[in-house]
């Protein structure tokens, strides 16, 4: 295996990477704020992280990934207050949608999806440590702020110019501009809209709620320890979010927070960053309604290096659709072949080597794709020869399985709409039967699905199905 190397934002260079214990990569990835559907720009980041965890396993390590779900923040409270709802009523549907969208894009399950609202005690304890360490102070209204001038390393991740920092000036909102670096809120005193929407908790400083930055530090350290291997997210999170995470975590523990920081670039739409406030947002549901498969979007995203901006143009997805169709046709041909040639085995070995070298060099997915398509071209040529070398065919299949285990681009078998509708109806009947504890009816519904060749799998985020 080649050496695994990643670009570390903290060091501003590509460096060799390995887990501290030599076995398990403990990785924290910032998840969605669940007040609206996650857009395709968000999912570009989540796909880069999916690629990262798959390549880590390819390198021979295990993964312990924690992806938080932010279910309390300014935007969620504003939406809840505007509709007369509590924050749970706002966030739960979008949490479920996120998991459906994620599965549609074949993004693997993280090991944990902690919710901010379920970790308030851990957040309060972290604030108390910071107050005790004299790096946080209590304001007149009961809010608690982090004093950035008391943490000498503030700005080391974003390389913020210290002259831009106005120490002692307070910022209560969750996001702020680089030129306005100020003391940030760790704990926010409750306002009437917080109380009305269920976004306030008791604390030593009075009723209030956590600041956005605090949430990730508390949950990361609970599940991964005070120092862990890798923190990843979108490039827009470097400042202020990740900078503030480092400050509050390291000021509390005196230890390095994350050993390596990895950030993905923006998805652009006609040259502009995709963002809800800009109004150029597209999401997975819209993509699915247009008949665009998850594999097509995966290919589109992997066609650019994760640290390069990627533009979503009119014909981008059509080009990826054609590429995915080519992969699917090759997968079918390879599975139906009966033998190969010595040159087929050589092509497989060459492709696998190029594939690994590309991905182990800072996740160079475009080069990995190039290795895959070169292999497809050479393999198709050798399969035309109709050789008699069965081990060569098995070698080619093994190489293709390895490559697809990471890229996951072989399209699913087509399922007609009528069958899909029937499956969803039977799954709903099974779910309703289980809710009323009519297990005989639930088993009967499952038997009907099995008889039609439908395989189902129950998981924490619902039931998946596929054609067997």
TrEMBL record:
Binds 1 zinc ion per subunit. Keywords: Aminoacyl-tRNA synthetase, ATP-binding, Cytoplasm, Ligase, Metal-binding, Nucleotide-binding, Protein biosynthesis, Zinc. It catalyses: tRNA(Cys) + L-cysteine + ATP = L-cysteinyl-tRNA(Cys) + AMP + diphosphate. ATP binds at residue 276. Zn(2+) binds at residues 30, 216, 241, 245. Its cofactor is Zn(2+). It comes from the Bacteria. A motif ('HIGH' region) lies at residues 32-42. Monomer. This is Cysteine--tRNA ligase. It comes from Gemmatimonas groenlandica. The lineage of its organism: Bacteria, Pseudomonadati, Gemmatimonadota, Gemmatimonadia, Gemmatimonadales.
């Amino acid at each position: 295996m080649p050496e695994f190397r990643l670009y570390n934002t903290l060091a501003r260079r590509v460096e060799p990477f390995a887990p501290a214990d030599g076995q398990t990569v403990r990785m924290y990835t910032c998840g969605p704020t669940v007040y609206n559907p996650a857009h395709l720009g968000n999912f570009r980041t989540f796909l880069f992280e999916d690629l990262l965890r798959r390549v880590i396993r390819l390198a021979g390590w295990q993964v312990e990934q924690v992806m938080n779900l932010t279910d309390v923040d300014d935007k969620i409270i504003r939406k809840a207050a505007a509709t007369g709802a509590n924050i749970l009523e706002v966030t739960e549907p979008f949490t479920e949608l996120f998991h459906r969208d994620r599965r549609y894009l074949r993004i693997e399950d993280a090991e944990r999806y902690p919710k901010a609202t379920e970790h308030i005690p851990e957040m309060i304890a972290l604030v108390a440590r910071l107050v005790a360490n004299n790096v946080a102070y209590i304001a007149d209204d009961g809010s608690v702020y982090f004093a950035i001038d008391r943490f000498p390393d503030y700005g080391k991740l974003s390389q913020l110019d210290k002259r831009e920092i106005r120490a002692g000036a307070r910022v209560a909102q969750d996001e702020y501009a680089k030129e306005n670096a100020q003391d940030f809120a760790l704990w926010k005193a409750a306002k009437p809209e917080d109380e009305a929407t269920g976004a306030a908790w008791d604390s030593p400083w009075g009723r209030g709620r956590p600041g956005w930055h605090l949430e990730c530090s508390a949950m990361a350290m609970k599940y991964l320890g005070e120092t862990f291997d890798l923190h990843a997210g979108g490039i827009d999170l470097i400042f202020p979010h990740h900078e503030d995470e480092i400050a509050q975590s390291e000021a509390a523990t005196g230890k390095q927070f994350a050993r390596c920081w990895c950030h993905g670039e923006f998805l652009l739409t006609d040259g502009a960053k995709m963002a809800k406030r800009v109004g150029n947002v597209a999401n997975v549901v819209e993509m699915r309604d247009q008949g665009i498969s998850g594999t097509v979007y995966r290919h589109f995203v992997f066609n650019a290096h994760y640290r390069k901006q990627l533009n979503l143009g009119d014909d981008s997805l059509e080009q990826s659709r054609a590429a995915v169709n080519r992969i699917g046709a090759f997968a079918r041909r390879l599975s139906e072949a009966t033998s190969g040639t010595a040159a087929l085995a050589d092509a497989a070995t060459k492709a696998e080597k190029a594939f690994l070298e590309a991905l182990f060099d800072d996740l160079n997915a475009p080069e990995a794709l190039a290795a895959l398509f070169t292999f497809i071209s050479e393999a198709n040529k050798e399969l035309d020869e109709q050789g008699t070398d069965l081990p060569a065919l098995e070698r080619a299949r093994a190489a293709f399985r390895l490559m697809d285990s990471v890229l996951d681009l072989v399209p699913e078998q087509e399922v007609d709409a009528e069958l899909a509708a029937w499956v969803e109806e039977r799954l709903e009947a099974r779910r309703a039967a289980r809710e009323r504890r009519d297990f005989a009816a639930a088993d009967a519904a499952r038997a009907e699905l099995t008889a039609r060749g439908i395989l189902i799998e129950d998981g924490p985020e619902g039931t998946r199905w596929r054609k067997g």
